[in-house]
Amino acid sequence: MSDKYQGFVQTPIGQLLVRNLGLPSPTPLRRYEEGAPLVDGTVVVGGTGRLAESLPGLLDSVGVATTTDSDAAQKYAGLVFDATGLTGAGQLGALRDFFTPLLRSLETCPRVVVLGTPPEQVAGSERVAQRALEGFTRSLGKEIGRGGTVQLVYVAEKAEAAVASTLAFLLSPKSAYVSGQVVRVGTHATEAVEVDDWQRPLTGRVALVTGASRGIGEQIARVLHRDGATVVGLDVPQAASELQALMRELDGDHLTLDITAKDAPQRIARHLTEKHGGVDVVVHNAGITQDKKLANMSEDRWNRVLDVNLVAPERITRELLDQSVVHDNGAIIGVASIAGIAGNVGQTNYAASKAGVIGLVESLRDELRNGITVNAVAPGFIITQMTAQVPFATREVGQRLNALAQGGLPVDVAETIAWYASPGSTAVNGNVVRVCGQMMLGA
After folding, report:
1. H or E element that contains 276
2. Among residues 134, 156, 185, which one ends one of the domains?
3. Which has the closest alpha carbon to 417: 356, 345, 355, 332?
4. Do 343 and 361 contact (CB within 8 A), yes or no?
5. Residue 443 scores a pLDDT above 50
6. Count of Cβ atoms closer than 10 Å to residue 62 Cβ
7. Averaged over 3-32, what is the pLDDT?
8. Is residue 404 part of a domain?
9. In contact, 110 and 78? CB cutoff 8 Å
10. pLDDT for 130 beyond 80
11. Is the dihedral of CA 235, 237, 238, 243 positive or negative?
12. What does the pLDDT read at residue 205?
């Protein structure tokens, strides 16, 4: 689905109205195209923390060109600042010293990443300084403009070598609709798996995607396939024809069943074991909405949403783990929602289910062994056939109230999931990343 407003404001008349009326003017986002370099341009690296020396080598390993000597006459694709060396509030001026001279030297759709130490792992003045980085990055994300994004990555001690996958994602067009996020690397795991091919990191891996026949699920399947995975698409019997056609196109496998059925977890486990010898990536994407204000909410409407969105993913995950169907260094990924963080009128059932997905991540992140990780994405306003049915005024407000002033695409969610799924991301565990263009209201 296209964003007609965004197209209009690129016209001469649209630009005139933007200038005179102060209307939002969303920059067309640059998204990743298969076979393209991760970063088209040079990234300036700065800071004096514990990652400063290794950063150029880490970025070079994923094909990102860097420099430590900036030139105001040049244009740069991104900036990375190592703030792990800031041990007190008095040193926070180093952020202004690095960024202020460079912000006007950035290309369109630039990527900015600040690296810090998890505040909970330090104390005293150092904790104060490291916690301050969150306010800095979130504010910069709302003022950078021109399609730019800003992220904060907290890197635990001894996890310095495990940050390459995260930097590759956050500095590339794959993270086009992710901004203002705080990512933790190594706080619940520290070992990274070596990646042989950064273009196809999932080669030889099997990925289960629920709700795979259309919309966001279809894009997840396509992106995981692009990255080398054998995709097992799962959907309800009513979507069998669409699912089968997609899996034929992707040279994948399919499974049709209702995930809320009593025997669904056992059937899924048996299928993955017998046909694929297990699974490496599990994506719980299937979900439904049945909106009503709580005063008018029937028991069936409440239960159906909770059963599909939360109860079934938890039951399936537990079964796959109990039967050791998930391979070592595997990834379990849930699809939550901004509604589960901020709430929505008429969505008490849906918001409860999506907040529960976040709870599932929190409950499992310290239980898992053998390098298995659990993370979630929380999409904001994503342009799909479903959101196209939202009334025009509501839809326009939903798309504009973020730092990028536009809705996201299903591929934006899929790219974030592919980052989690990469074997290079095994130190990324217990995270919930919002794919929302950094909503203006709330964090």
Report:
1. helix 264-276
2. 185
3. 332
4. no
5. no
6. 18
7. 80
8. yes
9. yes
10. yes
11. positive
12. 98
Helix (H) or strand (E) holding 254: strand 253-256
CA angle 103, 138, 185 (to 5 degrees): 100
- Distance (Å, whole) CA 386 – CA 381: 11
For residue 54, the enclosing domain spans: 24-185
How confident is the prediction for the chain on average, in pLDDT?
A: 94
Whether residues 181 and 217 share a domain: the answer is: no
Give yes or no: residues 176 and 263 share one domain: no
Q: Give yes or no: 350 in active site.
A: yes
Which of 224, 175, 236, 182 lies closest to 38, judged by CA? 175
Q: Which of 32, 76, 350, 420 is catalytic?
A: 350
Same domain for 333 and 362? yes
Residue 343 lies in a domain: yes
From the list 436, 227, 219, 205, the residue with the least C-alpha distance to 331 is 205
Coarse DSSP helix, strand, coil percentages of the chain, rounded to the nearest 5 percent = 40, 20, 40
| Domain count within the chain | 2
State the average pLDDT over residues 19-48: 90
Give the separation between CA 374 and CA 388, rounded to whole angstroms: 31
How far apart are alpha carbons 165 and 420 in whole angstroms?
A: 9
Q: Residue length, the chain? A: 443
* Total-model pTM: 0.95
Sequence-ordered list of residues with C-beta below 8 angstroms from that of 294, at least 6 positions apart, any chain: 348
